[in-house]
Amino acid sequence: MTAADVTAGGITAEEPGLLTQARWAVSDTLVLTRRALLVWTRVPAYIVFTVIQPVMFVLLFRYVFGGAIQVPGASYVNYLMPGIIGQTAAFASFGTAIALAQELKKGVIDRLRSMPMARSAVLSGRLVADTGRMLVTILIIVAVGYLVGFRFQNGFGPAVGMVVLATVFGLSICVIAAFTGLAIGDEESVQAFGLIWLFPLTFVSSAFVPIQSMPGWMQVFANHQPVTYVVNTMRALALGKPFSDNLSSDLWHSIAWLAGIFIVFVPLAVRAYRRAS
Amino acid sequence: MLTGGPAQEDVVTETSTGPAILVEGLTKSFGDVHALRGIDLSVPRGTVLGVLGPNGAGKTTAVRILTTLLQPDGGRALVEGRDVVRQAPAVRRLIGLSGQSAAIQEELTGRENLELIGRLYHLKRADTRTRAAELLAQFDLTDAAHRPAKTYSGGMQRRLDLAASLVGRPRVLFLDEPTTGLDPRSRLGMWDIIRSLVADGTTLLLTTQYLDEADELADEIVVIDHGLVIAAGTAEELKGRVGGDVLEFSVPDRARIKDAVAAIAEVGESEPHVDEETGVISVGVGGRGSDALIEAVRALDTVGVQTKGLALRRPSLDDVFLALTGHAAEEEQPGKPRRGGRRARKKDQAEQDNARPDSATVSS
């Protein structure tokens, strides 16, 4: 057996150096990112969910509800698009939770955890893939928005800023979903609860209607929750005045919320991954 | 391939002489459930240990600890001389794991699945491709290599999963119930594969609920029940624990089973066991063989009980388990619903026997 300790293409028990470990952490993440994207392209249902559903939301709000909703300072389609993009980014987290719960149940995560690969790669690969997927979805929504009358009003730079903010926001929700998916660990429960908490969060916000139209008690919640801050910032970036009047306040609140979510939920997700069974 | 720095924490202890797997006083509880209550194991290199026990005995918990997936509460476990807790990264480079379900990505093809694992073992691209092709051929999956794994049969998925656990050429392989849920024919094919792995010198720890499987594949068997090792030895040694031959018969008239048991109790050297489902009565008769058979016929004739299939046979591991634990191997714990009793397994075995001639074989 000793001669076979280092076989061609085999592995050894030697501890690799730190540099090698860092390189492996990156390459393992990319391998698992590629795997997740490959799976995504092979399941028609996932593509429908990530592309068709948000497009339907755009069309419904633009043409069904839009006629009845008046907003000051902009046409409704311009008001709507940053909100829909924020919601779409948040809903992308559903895929994160489902995929992790499935892998846990099938033993894929057990297999990967028993292998000499970077332990961070399962989570980071999943999040990189989901972020890439989310970005594609956002760009499709923007294109659909342009077809139904939406126009960026504030120049190219801020428009890119809006897309970046939406992506970082979506990633933060994906981290929460990674934690819940691994902590719950049961696909059916994740299916049932994966989106429910996002409905009040996205609808009771400034995403679709001005908050002033809501009852007073609801305004208290809507005014102080992260989706409102993020969507307000996105709208300010996309449309400029009058939405950019509070830009610095909205931006700092958004950054604080997003930082808070990452600080709390990244360690929780990592811990859930370590303990997952 | 490895540019590794100093091998810190990888102090090689007991590697050249010690056993491939060494477990001492291992304990693990989940709340009030004591899954492992202090088990000891020692598996010499290149041998197969069969860990046998019913559902919930603690087999999977032991495998999860040995494969670094779970931290034990107490005791220690070494794989190739490396501690599974303190030297977990080193252990992971030496082991392969194939669990109870097929841990493969169903949307990807067989080849993609194996190449993915190869990349995660940091094999070079060319080596990854060669190794995947080798394993696909060895496991008779070359023709299906380009198809998504979800189109595979259950047996094929398990073979692919086992192949995935071998990509890194592990020195110690853990198979957690490798044939549970497989049809009898796929099960026999899996047995052939496992035998060929052992022939290559891999050390193997295999858990199973099937006594015939342990008998067939393992050099040594430990029997686990309620988190404790209750017996250890070769299949023959364990059969010796029953103390000789077993007399077995069934009573078609269920109402007379009690009379039959009373009559036979005189003849037997152990407490007669009645299978509630089949009405089959078995009793150990030690080394008295045919004398016991004659006595039994007389005793049953005296009380006027009609019997069917009265015969003397060598003890099976079923009898061993019964003698050791007081319950049959695949019966659930008392109070829980039964899932497939002795009868189910017997039927299973019969089907297997029928399937034997045309069972799938594997080129290696």
Task: Please explain how this structure is put together.
The complex is a heterodimer of chains A (277) and B (364). The longest helix of chain A is centred in the middle third of the chain and has 29 residues, at 156-184. Chain A has one domain (19-275). Chain A has twelve helices and no strands. Chain A is 74% helix and 0% strand. Chain A has 277 residues and is mainly alpha-helical. By secondary structure, chain B is an alpha/beta fold. Chain B folds into two domains: 21-238, Rossmann fold (3-Layer(aba) Sandwich), CATH 3.40.50; 242-333 and 341-355, 2-Layer Sandwich (Alpha-Beta Plaits), CATH 3.30.70. In chain B, 35% of the residues lie in helices and 23% in strands. In chain B, strands 6-7-8-3-9-10 form a six-stranded mixed sheet, sandwiched between helices. A four-stranded antiparallel sheet of chain B has the order 2-1-4-5. In chain B, strands 12-13-11-14 form a four-stranded antiparallel sheet, covered by helices on one side. The interface between A and B is large, with 40 and 55 residues.
In short:
The complex is a heterodimer of chains A (277) and B (364). Chain A has 12 helices and no strands.
